[in-house]
Amino acid sequence: MAQNKTIIPVKVGVVLDLKTEVAEIWLSCMEMALSDFYASRAHYKTRLVFRTRDSNGDVVDAAAAALDLIKNEEVQAIIGPPQSPQAKFIIQLGEKSQVPIISFSATTPSLTSIRSPYFFRTTINDSAQLGAISSLVKTFGWRDVVPIYVDSEFGEGIIPYLTDALQEIDVRVPYRSSISPSATDEEIVAELYKLMTMQTRVFLVHMWYNLGSRLLAKANEIGMMKEGFVWIITDNFGDLLGKLNSSVISSMEGVLSVTTYVPETNDLSRFRVQWKTKFQRENPTILDAQLDVFGLWAYDTVFALAMAVERIGINNTKSFGFLNTNSKSANYSTDLEAFGVSKKGQELCDALSSTKFRGIAGNFSLVNGQLESSTFKIANVNGVGGRTIGFWTEQNGLIGKLGSDKSTRLGPIIWPGDSTSVPKGWEIPTNGKVLKIGVPVKDGFAEFVKVIHIENGNKTEIKGFTIDVFRAAVDELPYALPYELVPFEKSDGTSAGSYDDLVYQVYNGTFDAVVGDTTIRANRSWFVDFTLPFTDSGVVMVVPIKDNKSKNAWVFLKPLTWDLWLTSSLFFVFIGFVVWVLEHRINNDFRGPPSHQIGTSFWFSFSTMVFAHKEKVVSNLARFVVIIWVFVVLILIQSYTASLTSILTVEQLQPTVTDINQLLKNGENVGYVEGAFVYGLLIQVGFEPSRLKMFKTAEECDELLSKGSANGGIAAAIDETPNMKLFLAKYCSKYDMIGPIFKTAGFGFVFPKGSPLVADMSRAILNVTEGDNMKNIENKWFKVEEQTDCPADHSQPKISSNSLSLESFWGLFLIAGVASVASLIIFAITFAYKHRHILFDSSEPSVRKRVGSMFKKFDQKDLSSHTFRKSGFRDGNDTVIAAGSPNNSNCPPSPSSYSNSPFSFSGQASPEPAILIISNDVEMQGISPRV
């Protein structure tokens, strides 16, 4: 009995919707927590005593119940209420009376903004699961998500946080569907049919399980649980799947659920068994009740509160009570001014904030009054419940198994319709609206897009290159895409604005897309998305071309550069000298007076240009040199002839301007296409607006270029590559294309930001451009195969005829030079060796005279050569040396018998004794020779 006197009862209020099954489960968990806590802690001085009130599922009733508990029961804390809307007002009451309000089921993120030190949330904030949801969306590449939520503070509270989380991964929320908590089945079906008319097929359901199960059951009935649909339910719904019967679960097959992960422990398993037994005994009418995570949090909440109460009560035996209570108030009055302030409220808040322990739902730790975020489990709903396919943690994101690295994949998923293929997340609804596609209206360059009004304007025909490319791409799509082409024009049929204005119509929703010659630009991509380009990219400059054909009298010198002319001339002289040296002693054609020998050498060498040389070459070394040289001359002559022919007969067309800066420096006029973005580029570069002239058609552009800048025309036309290529297809003989001078991405189709059609259309465009379809479309509109007289590459001059330089022929000259020098060296060595007795004659001490004797010997005929081995041998003066002459003696003459001249070109033989000379001139006149 003495022990009972020390126990301090502490009253705690409990506010639940007692008419619901979940409230019965939660209250059972709280009572069991109270029993378990004090069963193992009998020595504690404090005891929690519950004072339970029914909220009736209503905000006002919940507030009245809380006010009654604070004023009349003077509770030290309130556990509840179950719903977020009910909690807001009760939190204000708790702050005024300094009574802690502890909720284990109010998950709305907006409650955090109240920032009351007397509010504690022992459940997970709804916004904590958005990381798992956005990771799922990003993993499967979905671009649009439609949230379906209950039209209450609980449902609306998560939407701003959801939108922000999806925007971080570049995912749009094109529509928000709200369902009234009291919605009938007909109202739910009507909203679902509305969703079916939209492209998005990824739906996020955020509502309590009772309304959510009705929604998904109706979705299954009308065909929204078939292949291609994606349904994701949040943890408030997913954590309570166990409350649903098997028929409802079967209608949800393929749904993905995000639920709070509670690790399985021995304590949890034991608690489940004990709770099941207790609850079934106390509530025999409720069959097959399922324990949920909120019940576990309720259990841990009672444990935490009991610990905190004991901590502040162990050193203070004074009773827990209120101060400044108005004694005049009636019994059980709910007057807002009639209640006082809890004595222990602030201490209890501090004790709760510092309470930490391992509960049956996991680690219990409050940070700024909120339960720390935990791990989330990703489950795939099948016929018997949810099958775990992975987990999400703040550190690792989506993973297949806890404790594994980020590379592990999610488990296999069975999507709605029993499909194993990941849904693309959108489709064109069969009963959806037809896409309204804007088309530019323009006067010129109609090959790209042309709008034709027929039958007095009552009917419109739109055609062109870009239209055909779009239709071909649509045909490549794996689904039907209904669309309508609408001209962007005024009532009078003229253009309604620039291309930027047209693109903006997609941003503001006037058009669903734009098809035409629309350039992909960075400033436009802020508002819309583009497909991959289907044309060449870049901005180019078209300028007139001029003929640089030379028409002067010295044009024949132009084929070769001066260094090649000089080298060729020197080699002609050098080859003539080499042949003379090799042939002089053995060939009469290279003997005679000096002038004759020099003339013959030059004649022989230069006559090889026309292969008209008649002199015979008898030396093998000279023949070798001549063969090499004739080959070199043949190559030179052929190259010279080809280059000169090109210069004299082919047009040398060069652009008049090759740099846009040259136009700026000279103050020239420049043209641009009407409505094009090029005008802004030219202004940025530095052109004055007065120097920019607009043209609409290719004919106007030709007229302005023909006039020239000085006569009010333009010096260059600047526009995108496709337009200028089309222009040059008509006027390739007059103009040339330079560039690109600015970089662009080419033409692309325009869709709204985040449109799922962009990826599919881009793939379709690749299929079109890589096949023969694009070639056929180009031939149809640009007649590419017929334009054989125009060059394919307009970015280079049509003819490039440069003079031939030494760089192209130095190899030939090297071969000829090496062959000639090698022949000279061989001849010199052979000659010196044969007449070495002259060089090493010891009777002649003067080296100069010995060298002179060698040159004298070189000037003489080599009578040992086969060319002189006949009955009579001619010398340079047409004389005949008689047989038996002392000249035939094997004994060489003394060096003193030669002339002292170092070298002689006289052609006269030196006087020798006992030589018989017969004049051929006398013979030719019929006169007998004299002895």
Count of discrete alpha- or pi-helical segments spanning 4 or more residues: 29
Mind describing the biggest β-sheet?
8 strands, mixed
Rg over CA atoms, rounded to whole Å, is: 53 Å
| Strand-pairing-aware structural class | alpha/beta
**Which regions have little confidence, pLDDT < 50, spanning 5+ residues?**
794-800, 871-931
* Terminal CA distance: 181 Å
Number of strands: 33
Approximate shape: elongated
Q: Widest sheet: strand order?
A: 7-6-8-9-10-16-17-18
The percent range for strand residues is 15-25%
**Helix amount, in percent?**
25-40%
Give a topology summary:
Layout: H1 2-5, E1 8-16, H2 21-39, E2 46-54, H3 59-71, E3 77-79, H4 84-97, E4 101-103, E5 119-121, H5 130-139, E6 146-150, H6 153-157, H7 159-167, E7 177-179, H8 185-196, E8 202-206, H9 209-221, E9 230-233, H10 235-238, H11 246-250, E10 256-260, H12 266-282, H13 293-313, E11 322-323, E12 341-342, H14 345-353, E13 356-359, E14 362-367, E15 370-371, E16 376-382, E17 385-393, E18 397-399, E19 435-440, E20 450-454, E21 459-463, H15 465-476, E22 483-488, H16 499-507, E23 513-514, E24 528-530, E25 539-547, H17 562-583, H18 594-607, H19 620-649, E26 653-655, H20 660-666, E27 670-673, H21 678-685, E28 692-695, H22 698-707, E29 716-720, H23 721-731, E30 735-742, E31 750-752, H24 757-770, H25 772-782, H26 810-834, H27 836-839, H28 847-859, E32 879-881, E33 917-919, H29 920-924
Parallel strand pairs: 1-2, 1-3, 3-4, 4-5, 6-7, 6-8, 8-9, 9-10, 19-22, 19-23, 27-28, 27-29
Antiparallel strand pairs: 10-16, 11-12, 13-14, 14-15, 16-17, 17-18, 20-21, 24-31, 25-26, 25-29, 25-30, 32-33
